[in-house]
Amino acid sequence: MNSTADHLSTREDLVWRAFFETQVLFWRRLGQQLQQDTGLSEPDFAILSALVQAPEQRLRAFELSGVTQFEKSRLHHHLNRMIGRGLLTREQCPGASRGTVIALSPEGVTAITTALPIRAAHIRQWLTDPLSDGQIDSLTEISETLLERLRAADPPQATPSPGCA
Description:
Blueprint: H1 10-38, H2 42-53, E1 58-59, H3 61-68, H4 72-84, E2 88-92, E3 100-104, H5 106-128, H6 133-153
Helix pairs in contact: 1-5, 2-5
């Protein structure tokens, strides 16, 4: 037994290998270009993107963990590094003595508003431009089908209470 080919049909193995390599190379390329063009890492971008869309550009750390899928310790360390770089601030929750929120700093707002159109250009370059309209429609349909199954297999997420409570 040397590979998945020992357990998958030829057709299944072909689709798996193409899908896997595409994902690896796609995310590597996007991550490299994002870092080169903006100085942001993928986790930086995910956190800043979530915060720029959040009410008052603030979220609790556990809400950010849902975006990044980081375990608590890794997220804590990454947030501290971003705070140290001036991209984020940590603020006390009103009415919650132990609660804090993570907020975008002015530098964080500048970083994400600069990065968003650059990320869009990268997505066009590596995902949508090489495809025909029909291929884009097919990829959308395939992705939605897979996403529906994957979401259904995930355990329900705890719904955070609004605010800092």
